[in-house]
Amino acid sequence: MTDTTAGAAPLTVMTVNIHKGFTSFNRRFILPELRDAVRKVGADVVFLQEVLGTHEDHAKKVNGWPEAPHYEFLADSIWPHYGYGKNVVAPKSHHGNAIMSKFPIVHYQNHDVSLPGPEKRGLLHCVLRVPGRPLDVHAICVHLGLAESHRLQQLDLLCEMVRSEVPDNSPLVVAGDFNDWRGKANGVLEREIGLREVFVNAYGEPAKTFPSRFPLLPLDRIYVRNASVHLPVVLPRRPWSHLSDHAPLVAEIHL
């Protein structure tokens, strides 16, 4: 990884799959609690997967359901800038990926990487303008498929997107739920587009994040290019084990 910029403040990033704001098996709606927990992390940029844009039936039946889309409710006054990518669309609801940022998002685009079958997946690409930085920071929120054959094709699509949309010298952060329990992504992304996984770089192996109560599988990742990382962490079971079935990841990134 590259050396840090002398005296520059780091960028703290977080990624978490929020399971549409419900506990496991949809037993309880916990989005307000989740918002409080995300706020306490103090991240500059938050990568969210499985975030609801709207759900008309839940809005009528669930106590405490916010009027705003969930990514706006989570962002509130803390993250004034956000981008949302609609992946799964039903007659009365839709959900997908979102990025919340304390810095301006000057452009964002959602790329549909769904393959034949019931799963709908996307890659949300946001371009962040960080004050004092000569180059914009590119951030890509990822949620890949459950089938390995689909994930490998989606990784190829991610590589193509990075090659065509991200300048070679720009800082790049790619984070999210890769569903990559067999560990195929790291080699592909480093070989093809120079991305390094922050936990592998720091500790020699990816972080185990699923299920959050007793993490066994390394499904979630943070990758960087043209940046260095200091002490990435998996957030502790309390309070996260009842807020998401994925343990969130946080990293301090130096551009």
Describe what you observe in this structure:
With 255 residues, this protein is α+β, with helices and mostly antiparallel strands. Helices cover 24% and strands 34% of the residues. It is built from seven helices and twelve strands. The protein has helices at residues 31-41, 56-61, 70-75, 148-165, 185-193, 198-203, 237-240; strands at 11-17, 45-55, 81-90, 93-101, 105-112, 122-128, 137-143, 172-177, 196-197, 220-225, 228-234, 249-254.
Short structural description:
By secondary structure, this protein is α+β, with helices and mostly antiparallel strands.
Secondary structure: elements and pairs:
Elements (H helix, E strand, L loop, with lengths): L10 E7 L13 H11 L3 E11 H6 L8 H6 L5 E10 L2 E9 L3 E8 L9 E7 L8 E7 L4 H18 L6 E6 L7 H9 L2 E2 H6 L16 E6 L2 E7 L2 H4 L8 E6 L1
What is the N-to-C order of secondary-structure elements (H for helix, E for strand)?
EHEHHEEEEEHEHEHEEHE
What is Rg? 17 Å
Which structural category do the helix and sheet elements fall into?
Answer: alpha+beta
For the terminal residues, how far apart are their CA atoms?
Answer: 10 Å
